[in-house]
Design a protein that fits this description.
This protein has helices spanning 3-13, 15-27, 33-47, 52-85, 93-106, 108-113, 118-130, 135-166, 170-204. By secondary structure, it is an all-alpha fold. The chain has one domain. Helix 4 crosses helix 7 (118-130). It is found in: Cell membrane.
């Protein structure tokens, strides 16, 4: 799903688009939930047609509900389901093993911080269920991570959208380049860290 298809979805369906896409991604469907949150919040800042508080609330609710769906799918069907069908949701066996290794070592931290890491965002809830993690603890870490993620990402995109609406010309272009460069740099760093973890897993295994 490309940005040109996402933006009309947000314009037409607003908060429901943010909620549903984030929820489905959190439940294990490979959709760009974080991108929808960022675009929705940026749209709110640039146009004022959406209330940023409701955009953040929709994303947080979608994250929490979707993760709980993923948790119970993992608990009900176990690791065999992920091993068999993981490739269809961009979770090959190597990445699944990496996630299991990290979860066994860090537990609640993975549930909380997984919301901020692309491949863990889809995987953390499923792994928590597969590993029979305590549901009460899962809800605490998951809800905390979901709310903070929605506030940080949503507020950041909102203020950027508002600034871009107010500032035009060369200064606005420079600001856009800086933000895009920062996002790309962060993605590269996260992928490098993931590679390091994969090598660590290979050494352990």
């Amino acid at each position: 799903m490309f940005i040109e298809h996402i933006q009309p979805l947000i314009v037409q369906h607003g908060y429901w688009a943010v909620f549903l896409v984030v929820m489905l991604e959190s439940a294990g469907v490979p959709l760009p939930g974080e991108t929808v949150l960022l675009l929705g919040a940026g749209y709110a800042g640039a146009t004022g047609n959406l209330d940023i508080a409701w955009v953040i609330a929709a994303a947080a609710a979608g994250a929490i509900i979707g993760d709980n769906i993923g948790f119970w799918i993992g608990r009900t069907f176990g690791a065999n389901l992920l091993l068999r069908y993981g490739k269809f949701i961009h979770l090959p066996e190597a990445r699944l093993k990496l996630g299991q290794y990290l979860f066994e070592r860090h537990g609640g931290k993975i549930v909380f911080f997984g919301r901020f890491v692309a491949f863990l965002r889809v995987l953390a809830a499923l792994l928590a269920g597969v590993n029979k993690y305590n549901w009460g603890k899962f809800v605490f870490f998951n809800a905390s991570g979901g709310v903070i993620w929605a506030v940080v990402m949503g507020a950041g995109a909102y203020f950027f959208g508002d600034a871009m609406h107010r500032v035009s010309g060369p200064l606005g272009i420079v600001a856009l380049v800086i933000v895009v460069g920062g996002v790309v740099g962060a993605m590269i760093l996260m992928r490098r860290e993931e590679k390091k973890m994969e090598r660590e897993l290979a050494d352990v295994g």
